[in-house]
Amino acid sequence: MKNKNLTTSQDLLFEGLIEGLLSNQVGYQTQFVSEELVKELRDQLQKNFENGKMHPAGIGNKFVHQKNAEVRGDVIKWIENDSQLAVEQRFIAIVKEFIDYLNRTCYTGINDFEFHYALYDVGSFYKPHIDQFKSDSGRKYSFVMYLNENWDVKDGGQFVAHLEGSEIQILPEGGTVCFFASDQVKHEVQLAHRKRMSIAGWLKKV
A single GO molecular function, which one (predicted)? Predict the structure, then answer.
């Protein structure tokens, strides 16, 4: 039997993301997951990097992309949806629970997802862009979770959503999640002044 209090608390976090998207185009929640899980995912990202498993990101989807350091400077590693790593399975379980909640409450029909680790080194950035491609409309919602420890405004690397007549800035502190429609919100990662870590991905309808 599920822990009813945990389920209620988790549902409130899910509702916060959805309400933020509906009212401000971008939903975000701090402390979306435990500090323990954030640390374990951060450690896994760093292990991937140290073992040479992270590579320069490109512009495009998971299978077809072009590298352009003038647009984005992060290195990434894709997370397999059927990963056998316990820490990744815990993250994927949360994603699946959110998808289930989204489909039950908003009838979105999401039936797939893809995520990757992302590391922005000092001096890296990602210029303003939209996540959905004209040739591939499968990406419906973007979902980013930050893994950074003790992040401060002076560290840079803020997520900035450029909306009509306004903008939203989110500090990439560990455990914070942001959520928005992939085809509607132009956004960027500002210049990072220290190493910036996250898991970024998309909820898809294929």
Answer: L-ascorbic acid binding
Q: Which residues contact 25 (CB under 8 A, 6 or more apart)?
A: 161, 163, 168, 180, 181, 184, 185
How many domains is the chain built from? 1
Q: What contacts 138, CB < 8 A, 6 or more positions away?
A: 112, 202, 204, 205, 206
pLDDT in tens, 141-188: 999 999 999 999 999 999 999 999 999 999 999 999 999 999 999 999
pTM: 0.90
d(CA 8, CA 193): 38
Dihedral of CA 31/102/158/78: which sign?
A: positive
183: CATH: 2.60.120.620
Cβ pair 199, 144 in contact under 8 A: yes
Could you read off the pLDDT of 87-129 as tens digits, one per residue?
Answer: 999 999 999 999 999 999 999 999 999 999 999 999 999 999 9
d(CA 40, CA 175): 12
Q: How many CA atoms lie within 13 A of 206 on its CB side?
A: 9
User: Which residues make Cβ contacts (< 8 Å) with residue 48, sequence separation at least 6?
Assistant: 54, 77, 117
Angstrom CA distances, 187 to 86, 158, 160, stand at 32, 10, 5
Alpha helix ranges (H) inside the chain: 4-24, 35-50, 86-106
CB 106 within 8 A of CB 136: no
